[in-house]
Amino acid sequence: MARAPLLQLSDISLTFGGDPVFDHLDLAVQPGDRVALVGRNGSGKSTLMKVMAGLVEPDKGSIVAGPGINVGYMEQEPEMKGFATLGDFALSELDPSEVYKVERAGAGLKFDPARAVETASGGERRRAALAKLMAEAPGLMLLDEPTNHLDIEAIGWLETELKTTRTAFVLISHDRAFLTALTRATLWIDRGQVRRQEKGFEGFEAWRDTLWEEEDMQRHKLDRKIKSEARWAVEGISARRKRNQGRVRALQDLRAEKSSQIKRQGTAAMALADGQKSGKKVIEAFELYKAFDGKDIVQKFSLTIQRGDRIAFVGPNGVGKTTLIKMLMGQEPVDSGTVKLGSKLEVAIFDQARAQLDPDITLWDSLTGDPEMRVSGKADQIMVRGMPKHVVGYLKEFLFDDGQARAPVRSLSGGEKARLLLAKIMARESNVLVLDEPTNDLDVETLDLLQDLLGEYPGTVLLVSHDRDFLDRVANTTVAMEGDGQATVYAGGWTDYQMQRADDVAQAVKASSTKSAKGGSGSDAPKTGKMTFSEKHRLEELPKEMKRLEAEIAKLEEFLGTPDLFTQEPAKFAKASDALVERHTALSDAEEEWLLLEEKAGS
Q1: 432-436 vs 460-464, strand pairing mode
Q2: 598: which residues sit within 8 A by CB, 6+ positions away?
Q3: Any residues with CB less than 8 A from the CB of 600 and at least 6 apart, and which?
Q4: Quick one: which H or E segment has residue 196?
Q5: What pLDDT is stored for residue 521 in this prediction?
Q6: Which pLDDT score is estimated for 246?
Q7: Cβ of 222: how many Cβ atoms within 10 Å?
Q8: Does the chain have fewer CB atoms within 10 Å around its N or its C terminus?
Q9: Is the separation of the CB atoms in 46 and 413 below 8 Å?
């Protein structure tokens, strides 16, 4: 016998003063469901979740919860008016005997129940709301971006809790790894239509692309049919005195069908412009020491950052990742040690707090009022990568419409604020990007584009993120900050770091066991010439790097061989010549490094 759904939405329609957000929507959440709710920023994900939670009333339709089913909702900006502390809020719906549940969730999510609501940050409020929901354990959980403001440890705790819970849940998240690990079905919102697939997020992109290909094929067939019928209608005037009115009406219907189709939203036309080339060494840090209020941030930390490196900084919230980056950029003084910045640095910063965005001004003023973007004597133009451009035209490249240009920044969603900040950063030339939590709230398509742009960016990237998938795709070096001033440099992204860390732990355990068995310190044991994990990884990667450099050299040589290039395009000739010299130098360095590592491996 089929069980009744936990929640049933029937014939739901909702309009916010313009085009319908949803029209004739039918949706059911079944017992045991683990559903990813996905869609572009602004597609209506959070709105649908609020409809499901009963916080937004649709224009028509019905919402019915199953018998005895309590629906719990964790919203992005929880309302805590009337509560003195975060703990008071988290415990408000629980029996006093269940305090331990909030304490357990609070420990896993790292929030302080004693923190006063009025002094709590947005992240602390969200963690308290999530702890409240996890402690209450309703029959259906609706989770709107629960990983925002969580560090990787807390995300891991939440992931484990959701894996083991018997409670059904619907989940909105930008974190690919989190969605892939937890979901078994996918709801996709696209232009007001909600589709469901009985596969988790891992299968979403292939499913989406297949549906879009089918849609494009149907649109192409419709266009061909309209052209054919239109040609018949025109030719029929001379061929017959009286045209077939049925076919004329059919043509009108076809045109009406085409005009009613909602065009897919494209991807943001984002681009990164590299400025002048920085020096080969971007930053040299030697034995840095820094402490705040008696708490060590780093101890004897050294790091050399070369042009083109992608350095990820990972660790728990509050460990000092942003502080370390500021020290490396010369924006925060060190207690001891030295930081030497390379030459010709042009830095662009994406800050986690979005402090560059004034919530009380319009998007238009946010761009035109920026001194680095202002065009003298042109109130409606901004400077974009060295060229003037109309402010609305540039906003459209980042998927903002005409109406939003004059709307206040505070009216934007989290993803839209992130896109606006990216628009400000990408308007200027740079050769060093500092990205502090850039992935929060961005949809999958925009994340994909950002990853591609960073992959092609010739400058240097310093990145703070808790998105494991993003770290794997972008970083080639990871600085792991684990507290007590310990900061260790690992080759590769998040997965590489985890593997190397596990290997280090295993070796330490083995060394400890050997030491205990011998009953001594082991200091007299002969030292081996074994390669480290990082060296092995580098030896495996170098042939691919050399092959890539050789291919780039061949392309540059072919381009420089173009007739009359020097006389007709002297700037391009000079730039290509510099690039060729750089690639040859990099290839020579890579070959020398490979020979040294290969010799060590052989010994």
Answers
A1: parallel
A2: 539
A3: 529, 531, 535
A4: strand 193-197
A5: 45
A6: 59
A7: 15
A8: N
A9: yes
Could you report the per-residue pLDDT of 151-200, keeping only the tens digit for each?
Answer: 888 899 999 999 989 899 999 998 999 999 999 999 999 877 899 999 99
Can you read off the two tokens belonging to residue 392? 């609305």
How many residues are present in the chain?
A: 603
How far is residue 351 from each of residues 153, 311, 391, 494, measured CA to CA in Å? 22, 16, 23, 21
Paired tokens of 452: 């591609």
Whole-number Å distance between alpha carbons of 206 and 587: 37
Residue 172 token pair: 């909105």
pLDDT at 360: 92
- Mapping DSSP to helix (H, G, I), strand (E, B) and coil, where does residue 418 land? helix
Which tokens in the block code for residue 214? Answer: 């089918």
Tokens of 402: 């005409």
Beta bridge partners of 71: 140
At residue 226, the pLDDT reads: 59
- Edge to edge, the sheet with strand 347-350 lists 347-350, 432-436, 460-464, 310-314, 477-483, 486-491
* 385 backbone dihedrals φ, ψ, rounded to 5°: 50, 45
Amino acid at 35: V
Q: Is 377 left (phi over 0), alpha (psi -120 to 50) or beta?
A: left
Phi-psi sector, 501: left (phi>0), alpha (psi -120 to 50), beta: alpha
Question: Would you say 341 and 286 are in contact if contact means Cβ atoms under 8 Å apart?
Answer: no
Burial of 531 (0-12, 13-18, 19+ CB in 10 A): middle
Q: Of 381, 433, 416, which is closest to residue 273 (Cα–Cα)?
A: 433
Which DSSP string do the residues of 43-69 spell out, in sequence order?
Answer: SSHHHHHHHHHTSS--SEEEEEEPTTP
Distance separating alpha carbons of residues 161 and 143, to the nearest angstrom: 13
| Angle CA 148–346–410, to nearest 5 | 35
Q: Which helix (H) or strand (E) holds 538?
A: helix 533-560
Placement of tokens 């089918």 in the chain: 214
Residue pair 90/132 in contact by the 8 Å Cβ criterion: yes
pLDDT tens readout for residues 572-587? 777 778 778 878 888 8
Strand partners, 382: 374, 389
How far apart, in Å, are the Cα atoms of 499 and each of 478, 495, 528, 533? 12, 6, 22, 9
Residue ranges for the chain with pLDDT beneath 70: 1-2, 17-19, 219-269, 505-506, 508-534, 537, 603
* Angle, in degrees to the nearest 10, between helices 99-109 and 122-136: 130
Residues 6+ apart with CB under 8 A from 154: 108, 109, 110, 127, 317
For 458, half-sphere exposure in the C-beta direction (CA atoms, 13 angstrom radius) is 13
Tokens of 118: 């009025």
Please classify residue 516 by burial: count the beta carbons closer than 10 Å to its beta carbon, then call 0-12 exposed, 13-18 middle and 19+ buried. exposed
The answer to whether 203 and 193 are in contact (CB under 8 A) is no
User: Rounded to whole angstroms, what are the CA distances from 546 to 276, 281, 540, 590, 593?
Assistant: 25, 20, 11, 7, 11
Q: What's the pLDDT score for residue 336? A: 95
Token look-up 């072919």 returns 558
How deeply is 379 buried, as exposed, middle or buried, from its count of CB atoms within 10 A (0-12, 13-18, 19+)? exposed
